[in-house]
Amino acid sequence: xxxxxxxxxxxxxxxxxxxxxxxxxxxxxxxxxxxxxxxxxxxxxxxxxxxxxxxxxxxxxxxxxxxxxxxxxxxxxxxxxxxxxxxxxxxxxxxxxxxxxxxxxxxxxxxxxxxxxxxxxxxxxxxxxxxxxxxxxxxxxxxxxxxxxxxxxxxxxxxxxxxxxxxxxxxxxxxxxxxxxxxxxxxxxxxxxxxxxxxxxxxxxxxxxxxxxxxxxxxxxxxxxxxxxxxxxxxxxxxxxxxxxxxxxxxxxxxxxxxxxxxxxxxxxxxxxxxxxxxxxxxxxxxxxxxxxxxxxxxxxxxxxxxxxxxxxxxxxxxxxxxxxxxxxxxxxxxxxxxxxxxxxxxxxxxxxxxxxxxxxxx
Length: 363
What we know:
By secondary structure, the chain is mainly beta. It has helices at about 15-20, 25-30, 110-120, 215-220, 310-320; strands at about 5, 45-50, 85-90, 95-100, 125-130, 135-140, 145, 155, 185-190, 200-205, 225-230, 235-240, 245-250, 255-260, 285-290, 295-300, 320-330, 330-335, 340-345, 350-355.
């Protein structure tokens, strides 16, 4: 199995080797630049945690195979990626299919399009592609067998690609270093009942989102209204909305809690309205919906998405058919589909109306 690992803050060679299921001796052999006592392990650099071949030779990378950068000096040339090698997936307990796209999807148009989707999908680590007909995303460790038979497809690890700066990687989110002052980042406890807060959803063992705290964070930051997570790597990823509602508690059943501000990824959990508002659009004008062919109420919420107009907008952006919404803070978020069907009306009880185009960050 061929794998790379990005070194995070405050990590040591021993915990990286243990997490990867390899011996510390092999880790030192494949990454001679870290030194024999791990004194030169560099944060923000890639190390090798799995190789091709049985006799690696520690040298500087230079084998013509695409490798994530920057790499720890002294990394073996045998730690290669699969970048376009033809083969088939093999069964593995710690990996599996996330989602597949077929003919007609924009993600099958090219290797680059499929790669961009992987890089923008929480938990995605690799993918198979047949240009024009198939783009299948996988989570977890590489589970690949080279095979040129019919039905085999080119296979790519997500680390074969780099997103341009305007499209940051969001399939896993690193911790901020140092942690934000005043934030709750990894403290063990339990949620407490509070107005305007609650559970969005929980993922358990078998879900790709429980593979690490950072993947759970990526799912939160890509989920409308999510403001924090309770997490136990390998078993639980619970997404929460609203203000922090946390009580420190070390008893059984308690989990680590993180606010979204503990992580350095951008968030799509809320949207910002354009300033000034786009010309020709209804952006916060008070009124009522009117009957019109091909338009109507898509869904209505009285919690979760009512904390702010930005959160309601994010939920509208996340629903494919949503084109506009009515919003009253703390009361309602009503999503509508189809052409704009709105009549201005300032009477009591009517709600501000927004076209989704009022939010340039909604894409």
